[in-house]
Write a structure and sequence with these properties.
- This protein is of the alpha/beta class.
- It has helices spanning 11-21, 48-58, 74-95, 130-143, 167-178, 200-212, 231-241, 258-261, 271-277, 285-296, and strands spanning 2-6, 27-32, 39-40, 62-65, 100-106, 149-154, 156-158, 185-188, 194-199, 220-223, 228-230, 247-250.
- The longest helix is centred in the first third of the chain and has 22 residues, at 74-95.
- The termini are far apart.
- Belongs to the NAD(P)-dependent epimerase/dehydratase family.
Length: 305
C-alpha cells in the first residue's frame, strides 16, 4: 500500500509516519514543502490542478493529512487549516478519487462544552476562536468532498517530541532550563481547565487503523483519552518526572493560551472510534508525560538552550 503523508515532519506527522513505516505492507511517501520530500506540495499556496498533477504521479492508495497550523494570525490559520484540506480534496477528486483520505481535525472544533459531559461526534460545533473555526472549515471540506474520507478529531496530544508551541512541550523546555535549581520558579497561567489528553503514538495507531479499514468509515471519529484531566495534574506529573525542586506559580497575566482559557472543560466520547476501528488508547497520561520528559531532558553535563 502506498501511503502519502502530508505534514510528516511535524510533531504528530513524525509519529504517524514512523508508525506507518513499521507496517509490513506499507510504503510511506512524504509530501511537503521541503525539496527532500518525495512529493513537493504546499497546501497553503498550491492550485488544485498543480496538486492533482503531483498526486497523480505519486499514485497513493491512501493519503494522511497531518498538515496544520496551531498558531499564527487568522489568515495563516485559514490558509493552512481551511484552504489546505479544500485544495487537497479537489486535487484528490481529480487525480486519485479511489484513495482513502485520513485527515486530522481537532477537538477545538467543539468549543466550550458542558462540564462532566463527553461529547460525541454529533455534538454541536461552536469553536471559540480562529483555530477551532478554521479546523472546522477543514473538516467540512473533507466530509462534503464525496471522497472515501474520515476526519480524526484529535484531543490534546502529548508524548515525546511535544513542541514548545504547546503547553506540555513548553513546560518541558522550562523544566530543562531550570535544571536542579531549588530557587527556580515556573510562572504559568491558569491551570484549572480540564482536557482530554491522548498520546501521539496512540493517535498514530488510530491513523494506521483508519488507513487499513476495509469498510467505509464514519465521516468523523473522536480520538482522545476518553477522560478529562486537570491541566494542573499534567504539569505536576511533568515536574515530578523532571524532579523539579522549585515552585510552580499560576499567575494572572502569565503566558498562556487564550484559546484554552475560553474552554474550561474538554472531553471526547471515543466509543465510535472503538466500534469503527477497534481502537482505544493504550498509554496512560503518566506514561506519556514520562516519555515526554525522557525525550526533552538535557544530556548530562549539557545545559538546555
Amino acid at each position: 500500500m502506498r501511503i502519502l503523508v502530508l505534514g510528516a515532519t511535524g510533531y504528530l506527522g513524525t509519529h504517524i509516519a514512523e508508525h506507518l513505516r513499521a507496517q509490513p505492507d506499507a510504503r510511506v511517501l512524504v509530501a511537503g514543502r521541503s525539496p527532500a520530500a518525495d512529493v513537493t506540495v504546499d497546501l497553503a499556496a498550491d492550485q488544485p490542478r498543480d496538486l492533482a498533477a503531483a498526486l497523480a504521479e505519486a499514485a497513493p492508495d491512501a493519503v494522511v493529512n497531518c498538515a496544520g497550523a496551531t498558531g499564527g494570525d487568522a489568515v495563516t490559520l485559514a490558509e493552512v487549516n481551511a484552504r489546505g484540506p479544500a485544495v487537497l480534496c479537489a486535487a484528490l477528486r481529480e487525480a486519485a478519487p479511489g484513495a482513502r483520505l485520513v485527515h486530522l481535525g481537532s477537538a477545538a472544533e467543539y468549543g466550550p462544552t458542558e462540564p462532566g459531559v463527553r461529547v460525541t461526534e454529533s455534538a454541536p460545533t461552536r469553536p471559540a476562536g480562529p483555530y477551532g473555526a478554521t479546523k472546522l472549515a477543514g473538516t467540512a471540506a473533507v466530509t462534503a468532498s464525496g471522497l472515501d474520507a474520515v476526519v480524526l478529531r484529535v484531543g490534546n496530544p502529548v508524548g515525546p517530541g511535544a513542541p514548545p508551541t504547546g503547553l506540555p512541550g513548553r513546560v518541558a523546555r522550562l523544566l530543562a532550563d531550570a535544571g536542579d535549581d531549588p530557587d527556580a520558579e515556573l510562572r504559568l497561567g491558569d491551570l484549572s481547565a480540564h482536557r482530554d489528553f491522548v498520546d501521539a503514538r496512540d493517535l498514530a495507531w488510530a491513523v494506521q487503523l483508519a488507513v487499513a479499514a476495509a469498510a467505509p468509515l464514519p465521516p468523523v471519529l473522536n480520538i482522545g483519552g476518553g477522560d478529562a484531566r486537570p491541566v494542573r495534574n499534567l504539569i505536576r506529573a511533568l515536574a515530578d518526572a523532571a524532579r523539579f525542586q522549585g515552585r510552580i506559580v499560576e499567575a494572572a497575566g502569565a503566558a498562556g493560551s487564550a484559546r484554552s482559557a475560553q474552554v474550561a472543560w474538554q472531553c471526547s466520547d471515543i466509543t465510535a472510534a472503538r466500534d469503527a476501528l477497534g481502537w482505544t488508547p493504550t498509554r496512560t497520561l503518566d506514561a506519556s508525560v514520562a516519555d515526554l520528559w525522557a525525550a526533552a531532558r538535557p544530556v548530562e553535563g549539557v545545559r538546555a538552550r
